[in-house]
Amino acid sequence: DTAVSQTPKYLVTQMGNDKSIKCEQNLGHDTMYWYKQDSKKFLKIMFSYNNKELIINETVPNRFSPKSPDKAHLNLHINSLELGDSAVYFCASRPPGLADYEQYFGPGTRLTVT
Amino acid sequence: LAKTTQPISMDSYEGQEVNITCSHNNIATNDYITWYQQFPSQGPRFIIQGYKTKVTNEVASLFIPADRKSSTLSLPRVSLSDTAVYYCLLSGGYNKLIFGAGTRLAVHP
Question: What is the pLDDT of residue B19?
């Protein structure tokens, strides 16, 4: 009965490859997010997606693209992977409401680019 | 863009009360103050949120002075399992949930 799940948990790949990370939430939330946590443990928001409205952090390269097949899923596609993309990626979701504060995070996907 | 400042690390012992203070001098009127906890190899977990004065739940208390330029997370009687990174952040919109470096709390026996 995991609330927010991500697959895979670990992903090792080579530079230049294209990969996807899947995220699913069974909480009925209407907003989902992707975050990147680098080696220094800084957690930065990449995208938020709500009712088909995508809000992008302008610092995110366009090699990253979120795709939402339905309200319960927000997958992250990454093209032409680079060494600097190595990090832990977290998916999160939020219940409906005005405040953005209470988010439910997945367990993370550790991406290693070699 | 509002940001927060908190100690990089803290040490405590089991059974003690731990207070982690966060500075947010440029907090906006519509910002809420939120604290998250993160254990190694896990995603952050929401602990508590407040706007002003004091908020208490089963896990922690949050003290916010009238000027809202700082806040203090209080963890009563910590145990070893409270060893984690604690993030103070401001939130007021889709893109305003900004995580800082966090405070690494180490609880010792």
Answer: 98
